[in-house]
Specification:
Elements: H1 13-29, E1 33-39, E2 53-59, H2 62-67, H3 69-74, E3 77-79, E4 89-93, E5 100-106, H4 110-125, H5 127-143, H6 148-174
Parallel strand pairs: 2-5
Antiparallel strand pairs: 1-2, 3-4, 4-5
Helix pairs in contact: 4-5, 4-6, 5-6
């Protein structure tokens, strides 16, 4: 069955879900974890989102993260390797109705780490942009309720522009 695309109003429980899963991931990664971030729309108060918690562990060694694949599987994750982004390790939990997505990057991959943090931080501090993004997601979810690819493609140009703006903002405020 294809993934059902549902966009819901912001739920403050998403932060608690992140904290709970962060503990699980921290135990699996151990000393290899430099940091574990809550990213994506569920990390932005007030922003509607698919109720999927996006988590970004930053690790010292991707090879050591790969060595922990069986531990992730035991915790309910599918360990899918790079899954389209070189240098990333992608994991998901919940099958077609996924509940969590994990994007592991090396501490040396500043580009990917910063682009995720930049978008999150920009949306947290720019409610107008967050509102526009939320409305777009609602429209696309209604139009493509069982076509995650079309949903994602519909967001592509907006997200690309958002990312450019967010990186400028992030670099100005964090360098």
């Amino acid at each position: 069955m294809p993934q059902h695309v549902v966009v819901k109003e912001y739920n403050p429980l998403w932060v608690k879900e992140f904290e709970k899963e962060k503990e699980v991931i921290a135990k699996i990664l151990g000393a290899n974890a430099a940091e574990i971030y809550h990213i994506g729309s569920t990390a932005v108060p007030g922003l509607c989102a698919k109720p999927v918690i996006d988590i970004m562990p930053v690790v010292y060694s991707l090879a050591a993260a790969d060595d922990a694949a069986d531990k992730f599987r035991a915790a309910g994750y599918e360990y899918l390797g790079e899954f389209g982004i070189p240098g990333r390790r992608y994991l998901r939990k919940g099958g077609d109705e996924r509940t969590h997505q994990v994007h592991i990057f090396s501490v040396n991959d500043r580009l990917n780490i910063e682009r995720h943090l930049a978008v999150r931080d920009y949306l947290r501090t720019h409610p107008e942009a967050a509102g526009q993004y939320g409305e777009l997601k609602k429209i696309l979810a209604e139009k493509f309720p069982y076509d995650i690819e079309a949903y994602c493609n519909g967001k592509e140009s907006f997200v690309a522009e958002l990312e450019k703006t967010a990186l400028i903002f992030y670099n100005k405020n964090n360098k």
